[in-house]
Amino acid sequence: MRNLMLSSLLTVSLAGLPMASLMAAPAPQGQQAQALSDSQLEQFHDAQKAISGIRDSAMEKLNASENPDEAQQIQQQANEQMIAAVKDAGLTVEDYNQIARAVQTDPTLRARLGDMD
């Protein structure tokens, strides 16, 4: 239960987007792949790897914590670190989230991202 709560909180917190942005219509699949440069996709890839490490570390700490206040602090710190990781990769949080949504819906982008591993 705690893992699900952390994953949800970290994902929602990282999004930090107004609700209207979350309901925006996605671009057609072909346009998404063409609209993203290799540089932007590489920035996303770098941010995604950093976020994965931060999330894994936060999950370990949360699993070891029994104190709700400490758990909240761990979540807040992880959120701040993830936002910093996105910015360090050269993206805004909004750009990161837009690319993440595009990657989820566009097989061409997923393939391009997969080729970076």
UniProtKB/TrEMBL annotation:
InterPro entries per record: DUF4168
Keywords, A to Z, come to: Signal
Residues covered by the DUF4168 domain: 37-112
Leader sequence segment? 1-24
- What is this protein identified as? DUF4168 domain-containing protein
